[in-house]
Specification:
The protein has 643 residues and is of the alpha/beta class. It is built from 28 helices and 19 strands. Helices cover 50% and strands 13% of the residues. A 7-stranded parallel beta sheet has the order 13-14-12-15-16-11-19. Strands 3-2-6-7-1-8 form a 6-stranded parallel beta sheet, with helices on both faces. The longest helix has 23 residues. The two termini are 54 Å apart. 41% of the residues are buried.
Length: 643
């Protein structure tokens, strides 16, 4: 292990303060690229060298990826034995450990299980049906809000609400909680909620934590909810040894309960020493100053100034396009140019978008330029479930013996046809010696129950109506609309979606598919050009084998990452700030923080693209406007390019 002098020699003065002054309460404000993780690792290393017992140190953060990185780096710094003695965990896993130590207050025993989202849905669905088919997504969201606000189910049902939905949700919450106790289970939201209640109501649990952990480090503190930050404050005990690290300018998870206002209030007391890691080691001066110009417009923040040891660098390129197609092509061509002319590896380039549905046009443009790409945390457009569902109808219209298409859609919507029956139908069709084999109608020759035949009759009638419609109206976009209406696909999609956001995203994807299909009058041409294009297949094969590919991801997914070159795509008003967030000051400020996070992923070059029009669900261009955030970037750091 390095000596204390060697540790400090690698740190700047601000980092040194965060490392050596480890007694008492401290806030470490760590902007992008300021060496936060290195500072936390050095703090742990320094404390151990200074005589602090490793077993008395608790370090927790919010994601498994971040926890694993901390664990690996701390182990490399202090050695395996000391690292194992420390508690380095995600917030949820630490709460789980605590609840296994003291399970009784929650009505469970130490052998409780953790229910995932599918398990949770299986429990909630039958309860929701008792209340006029109250939507699962609504119930889940209300219950999460109850828990984040520290409200037990027994208290929720006793409260009078002006919102009738909230009254019903409280009753569902009570029944759900009973089932979970009976099953000796917690869901994911339960872990921080019940751990918070445990420390609040159990002296034994609180004393155990205070006796075991003398030094607490809470990483990514900006992602805390009000309950999370109160929990962290309870952990610190009488000695007050709590270090909270993060950057409130990077708080972008309000939809998950992160509450930047509560974090700022809770850590504003005079007992908190403040250290500001002001040096950005990642980005050029132009990117640092441009991003600060944007985020400084937020009111709810800690004012700060950041500098960098890096060069001034290139100004930010604002790419102004006529429409989304030219915007996508311009990005693809610029990437190809950077790679071919300047030998920038594809893997050092990222395209960041606000919403997942944006990637379709980008994928087509990148394929056209033969640029390999990878969708990080996203599903490729043509692999998304709702797209494959609709395309499967088109495939079966084109080829009545397409077994995979039939297998996919025979139960969309649900017709009560099980896997065994589907297998029988496929096998019968394979054995059919008649020239006109047909998966849709072959079931009529089989011995099946009345209920199954009734379901297949409905499927056949719908499909035959779709076939007749196509003969009369060959426009593919009209055909897709007819399919959606005929099989009540939107209702099916809503029943299968996790929440309203998920449902709306899937609808947008279908609208994108309809946009693509406009002008086509042949299923064969449509599928050939957009689904099974040989060049597309070639690029997809290359992507699987070649790690050197452009990264496409959402702005949220990019947090914690950095790239030499970053393109921000679809930077239009109503996209970012998102239309659903633009009606409140709080919503706009979170969207601005998200834009700030996206900008600060760039190390050397940053491109920001927007278009004057975008295709929407009516297949016609809709006027679009540049995001207000573009105008907030100081003009000295930008140059405009019409593409």
């Amino acid at each position: 292990m390095a000596t204390k002098e060697e540790i400090l020699a690698e740190l700047n003065p601000e980092q040194q303060s965060a490392v050596t002054d480890y007694e008492g309460s401290m806030v470490v404000e760590a902007p992008p690229g300021s060496g936060k993780t290195h500072t936390i690792v050095s703090r742990c290393q320094y404390m151990i060298l200074d005589g602090v017992k490793p077993g008395s140190i608790l370090v927790f953060t919010f994601t498994r990826k971040a926890a694993n990185e901390l664990r690996e780096r701390i182990q490399a710094a202090v050695g395996e034995q000391s690292a194992k003695a420390m508690t380095i965990a995600t917030y949820h896993s630490f709460c789980g450990q605590l609840l296994r130590k003291f399970p009784e207050l929650s009505g469970r025993n130490k052998n409780f299980t953790i229910y995932d989202e599918d398990d949770k849905k299986n429990v909630l669905d039958p309860i929701c049906k008792q209340f006029d088919n109250f939507k699962y997504a609504q119930a889940r969201n209300y219950i999460s809000q109850f828990k984040m606000n520290g409200i037990k189910s027994s208290d929720a049902v006793k409260t009078r609400y002006s919102d009738s939905f909230q009254t019903i949700a409280a009753k569902i919450y009570e029944q759900y909680d009973r089932v979970m106790v009976r099953c000796n289970a917690f869901d994911f939201d339960d872990l921080p909620f019940h751990a918070y209640l445990l420390l609040k109501n159990s002296h034994d649990a609180l004393n155990y934590v205070h006796n075991k952990y003398k030094y607490i480090i809470s990483d990514e503190n900006q992602d805390s909810s009000r309950q999370n930050i109160e929990f962290a404050l309870m952990l610190r005990g009488e000695n007050g040894n709590l270090c909270v690290c993060g950057d409130t300018d990077q708080s972008i998870y309000g939809f998950r309960g992160a509450d930047v206002v509560s974090v700022l209030k809770a850590t504003s007391g005079s007992e908190f020493k403040r250290v500001y890691l002001k040096t950005n080691y990642r980005s050029t001066q132009a990117i640092v100053n441009a991003s600060l110009g944007v985020i400084s417009k937020n009111m709810m923040r800690v004012p700060k100034q950041t500098d960098t040891i890096n060069e001034v660098g290139k100004t930010i390129t604002i790419m102004h396009a006529l429409n989304d197609s030219t915007e996508s092509r311009a990005i693809a061509m610029e990437i190809a140019h950077l790679h071919d002319a300047y030998e920038v590896p594809y893997k050092d380039i990222a395209i960041l978008c606000r919403v997942q549905r944006s990637t379709r046009a980008l994928e087509n443009a990148l394929m056209g330029e033969k640029v390999p790409y990878s969708l990080k945390g996203l599903v490729p457009f043509y692999s998304r479930r709702e797209i494959k569902d609709i395309v499967a109808y088109l495939r079966l219209l084109l080829n009545s013996n397409d077994e995979e298409a039939f297998r996919r859609i025979v139960n969309i919507p649900k017709h009560g046809v099980g896997a065994t029956t589907i297998k029988k139908i496929i096998e019968a069709n394979r054995k059919n010696t008649k020239a006109e084999r047909d998966l849709v109608n072959i079931y009529e020759s089989l011995s099946l129950s009345y209920k199954i035949k009734a379901g297949l009759d409905e499927f056949k009638n719908n499909f035959n109506d779709i076939k007749e419609y196509y003969k009369t109206y060959p426009e593919i976009n009209d055909l897709i609309e007819y399919i959606i209406d005929k099989v009540s696909y939107k209702n099916y999609l809503q029943s299968e979606s996790d929440n309203d956001t998920d449902y709306n995203e899937r609808l947008w994807n279908i609208e994108e598919l309809q946009d693509i299909s406009a002008g086509y009058t042949s299923i064969e041409d449509f599928i050939q050009n957009f689904i099974v294009d040989p060049d597309t297949s070639k690029i997809e094969e290359d992507v699987e084998e070649d790690p050197d590919r452009v990264n496409i991801m959402t702005m949220h997914s990019s947090k914690g990452l950095e790239f030499r070159v970053v393109f921000l795509y679809e930077v239009n008003e109503d996209v970012i700030p998102h239309i659903k967030s633009a009606n409140t000051q709080q919503g706009i400020e979170e969207e601005r923080r998200l834009f700030y996070v996206a900008m600060t992923r760039a190390k050397k070059e940053l491109y920001i693209a927007y278009a004057d029009s975008r295709n929407q669900s009516d297949y016609k261009p809709v006027k679009a406007y540049p995001s207000r955030f573009i105008n907030e970037i100081p003009a000295a750091y930008t140059k405009k390019r019409f593409v």
